[in-house]
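Sequence, please.
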């Protein structure tokens, strides 16, 4: 009977935002596994006691990225970790978008401003500023050329906290076509979803945002599937990925571009795709026994 840990975050004192977690635990147990949800930062957990540790909803890691990667390294030395630690290390820093671009993958154009870099912001189009380590649109905001001073204060705040900023053009295609999320699991396309724009004009960077507004099932186009597969093929050293989510948005030419490649703790949206629970459980059990 394989032992599987689903690594999550401690939501104290609020309830967890991971609606899929209890469903997955129950489905794994029904399939014969000994499964439980475990807080990734619980120092009392014996990770070596599991056949497989799956990073699921460690959604507080982005402000503790160094601590999280150190945990993944320790865990990966004791048992099988999915995704592998080298993938976690690479994907926790969104400078990977630049590497995807160098590999020829169509991505949202991105510049990076680290602490100490000269401030250079667009003056001819709407743009987005966000950190290279972040989730749920935290510390992200959308600006016009007339909001230069506000954007500079945003940058100064991030740099004061040691964060590197990403500057991207606001992709207007998201207003019409939304952002599409292609979820891969066990080496194949599992399902896809679409959500509306997260960043509204004049919303402060430190305001709470709705992470997945207007979420709905989506049937990906051949072009979207092709870009998603190209992105996964460009991950360094061709690692074995148990799961992956490729977030796409249309460019000015109407063609899909990668906005993010989620290889650490993507929301699976199983509550929107209940038919995917079975294939996910099958893949988890195969990984635990493999």
């Amino acid at each position: 009977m394989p032992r599987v840990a689903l690594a999550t975050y401690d939501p104290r004192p609020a309830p967890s935002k991971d609606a899929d977690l209890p469903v997955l635990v129950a489905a794994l147990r029904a399939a014969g596994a000994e499964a439980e949800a475990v807080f990734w930062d619980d120092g009392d957990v014996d990770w070596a006691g599991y056949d497989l540790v799956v990073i699921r909803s460690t959604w507080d890691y982005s402000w503790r990225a160094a601590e999280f990667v150190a945990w993944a390294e320790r865990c990966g030395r004791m048992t099988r970790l999915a995704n592998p630690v080298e993938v976690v290390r690479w994907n926790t820093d969104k400078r990977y978008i630049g590497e995807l671009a160098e590999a020829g993958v169509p991505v949202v154009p991105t510049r990076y401003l680290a602490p100490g870099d000269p401030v250079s912001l667009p003056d001819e189009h709407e743009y987005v500023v966000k950190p290279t380590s972040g989730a749920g649109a935290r510390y992200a905001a959308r600006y016009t050329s007339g909001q230069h001073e506000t954007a500079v204060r945003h940058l100064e705040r991030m740099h004061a906290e040691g964060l590197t900023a990403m500057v991207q053009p606001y992709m207007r295609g998201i207003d019409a076509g939304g952002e599409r999320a292609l979820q891969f699991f066990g080496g194949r396309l599992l399902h896809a979803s679409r959500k509306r724009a997260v960043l509204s004009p004049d919303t402060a960077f430190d305001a709470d945002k709705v992470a997945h507004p207007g979420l709905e099932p989506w049937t990906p186009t051949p072009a979207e599937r092709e870009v998603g597969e190209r992105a996964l093929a460009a991950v360094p050293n061709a690692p074995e990925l148990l799961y992956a989510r490729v977030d796409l948005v249309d460019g000015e030419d109407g063609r899909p571009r990668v906005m993010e490649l989620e290889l650490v703790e993507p929301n699976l949206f199983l509550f929107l795709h209940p038919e995917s629970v079975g294939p996910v459980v099958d893949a988890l059990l195969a990984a635990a026994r493999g």
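The first strand starts at residue 3 and ends at 8.
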